[in-house]
Amino acid sequence: MKTARISSQKSEDSDSSQAANISAGRTTGALQSLGDRAPNADVRLDAVSVTFMRSNGDRVTAIENVDLTVKTGELLCVIGRSGEGKTTLLNVVAGLVEPSEGRVLVGEREIHGTGADRGVIFQGDAVYPWMRVADNVGFGLRVKGVRRPERERVVDEYLELVGLSHVAKSWPRELSGGMRSRVAVASVFANDPEVLLADEPFGALDYVTRRRLQGVMLDLWQRTGKTILFVTHDVEEALLLATRIIVVGGGHVLDDRPVNLARPRDEEVLASSEAVETRRRLLSYLGLEPGAGSAVGQTNE
Amino acid sequence: MQAASTVRAGNSHSRVRGILLRLAGVGVLLGFWQLMAVLLPPSRLVGPWNAVSDLVHHYNNDPLISFFGFSAAGYGGLMYFTVRNVIVGVAVGGLCGVVGGVALARTERTRAATEPALVTLGTVPILAVMPLFVIWFGVASYTSVILVALYTTILLAQYAMRAAENLPPIYEARAKTCGARMGTRVIRVLVPGVMPEILGGLRVALAFSWGLEVFAETLGAPSGLGQGIQILSNTDNVQGILAIVLLIAAVALLVDALLMAAARLLFRWR
Amino acid sequence: MSNAPVRPLSPRRLAGSLISPVALRLEMVVLLAVTWELVAHYAVTRIGTSGEPIFPSLEYLAKDSFLQMSNYWSGGWGAPSPGNGGTQTYLGAVLALASASFASFGRLFAGVGLGFVLGVVLGLAVSASKAARSVLSSPVHFLRMVPFLALAPLFEVWFGKSDIGAIVFIGYGSLVVTFVGIVNAVGLVPAVQLARARTEGATRRQIYRWVILPSIVPAMRATILVIIGLGWTLDVAAEMLGAQSGLGVIMEYALRFAYTGRVILVSFVYLVYAAASFYAVQWLTGWAIRWHPSQAKARRRRRFSVKPALALK
After folding, report:
1. Residue C81 lies in a domain
2. CA distance linking residue B19 with residue B31, whole number of Å
3. Domain covering B54-266 assigned CATH 1.10.3720.10 in the classification
4. What is the pLDDT of residues C99-127, one digit of tens each?
5. Is C166 within 8 Å of C243 (Cβ atoms)?
6. Residue of A nearest to B9 (CA)
7. Which residues on A lie below 8 Å from C304 (Cβ)?
8. Whether C131 and C232 share a structural domain
9. Which of A264, A212, A211, A260 is nearest to A234 (CA)?
10. Predicted-complex ipTM score
């Protein structure tokens, strides 16, 4: 906690420099090459079910017979209540969980197990504490056997894009929670996956930091055009980021709707009638009737 | 954490497999022991079965031990002495250590003065002062108890201090805002809060105390398994030594299991 | 707090400096020494059967007992051997202690080093296989619960009164503790860190090298510190039960004739060595965990320590 408080000053500095980067719309060399990505990075789930076995022997179906296609370049947000299959859905695509039935395809390939073609930003803190910030961002490249000069070039690019160049040589423990999240985001983008998966990556951050990181994420997505599957429990976050939102509940896809709001999605856009209507629908799926605060107590959370 | 949960089919199946693997482990240990016993002459090592049968035969009466005039004529009697000493030593030392450690954690000055000494004492072989105790207190039953108690005090004082430090301050603050007095805060908040961590220290202390007690006994004691080992090793009776070692291990495992069972009962809220 | 300008020494400031942590520590040492002297001179003045005081004073320890250490010097390097009719010399005492210390340190580091290296290799190998972990869990738990010190006579029977016996004994204890420590630490590597490595395409080998190994470094360091302490205890035991050289031999001899002064002196040397080797290893290995979050906390603890009780008032 103390560490976080100490570095929050630094964090804010870097945030303003970050904002400057984005507004200047600077495109860097590495990103131009990343722009020419593989033409087909569609993610397709084909009748996928995942069944777990509890320790007492009960079978639990986390997701059941899900068909879903995420088109190349889409930013799909997955929302739903906790424990109803969001994370499992993401883990199946990541290859961390094998489907009990059905298959998962990326492009034309059926996938089994994890692979560097699908990068994950985890819910927990997966930044390696024993690697300096730059080494953390370059980890995936090192795994691939990319040579040091090339690695350093890419790492520098992404550290600058997320506004962390000044702490490249720091240990993660010297960073605030928000800065560590940026390291995680930069690490995944630096590895240049075809598909990017994010599991409530900013859930543990305070409101201001979360808003800033959403900005960083949007910026990187717009520059690289990656396919992104973004799991969140926050309806506002989904409205801000998504090109399309699905609602998962009880192991099924309950709703699937495009979000055609204009960008940048400022307060005005998010207050438009279309946004209000979408928000109302989404909240009702989560068991929250808008305008009825007392209803919160009646949900079985 | 969820992210890395991998699916494993048939959990009840895998539990059976786990038990079988553990049994196989016991078999591996016994098999290795038996194999070494076959390869080595009986003056160096005997098999597990011989050691167990020696233990059974001499539990109540061992001519060699009676010959040396101990009141206890078998391993069982020697064991009673050792167990009593360890329990008394760990109990006394544990109480001193916990009270002292918690008090130190809450009194800044005394703690600043004593903490480095305490930490340093925790790193040194307390066993090295046993000869001095033998000279000072003689070959008495309480000499080794003092050693065990000293060791336990030093260890548990450190555990208690760390536990009291790690207890979130808001727990005591909340009790204070509810108007709880000092005594209530200690009994209702501090003690239950630090107990689980102290239990870990108690386990460590207990596990090491068996060896400490037994070795202290070999240096000078009126009875105990350590004296038994000493007598048997003077006559190169490997079978007897192994039997006593098995007995100590069995007692240590049993007491540890009892402690854990008691802890599960006490700390159900964990 | 202390941004006040320099003032002349007032009684109040003097009192304040007397209760600063460092001063308190020094005062503790002085208090202990004074108490010891008072007890030796006034409370316990009895002379034991060996003709030595049962509670020797510090000056007796420093002069007489220390000089008597030369009895354990076998001659050479300009110091005669009192055992062969020579006189007791301080040089002889220093040489006797030094050679005994050399033997003890040699055994300790050989045993601890051997046990640690084998323990790490075996621990990592077993961690790689879930089945191997299950098979070995109960035997290792059993071996962990067999008190090491109780095994000392067995090692004496197996290896005789030799250096090898002592080294193997210390090595065995270190091996078991290290093995348990490593297997535990590998099991505690956060699942999310392993998952990240997998999703970035790391192979099993790369995961071991870049994730598991660095992640268990703090546990390895903690294990080394534990086995240094354990190693000294086992060393004391092995030397007192039967060794040809080392501090324990002097101790055993002094105990047999109830030479209190020498027993105290040797115990003290043991304690100093154990503490010194612990702190030396702790200091030398500090760089290996400089990345660890606990390091930041340790450095900032003084600056940020807030007394909860004070904060509430």
Report:
1. no
2. 18
3. yes
4. 999 999 999 999 999 999 999 999 999 99
5. yes
6. A53
7. 2
8. yes
9. A211
10. 0.86
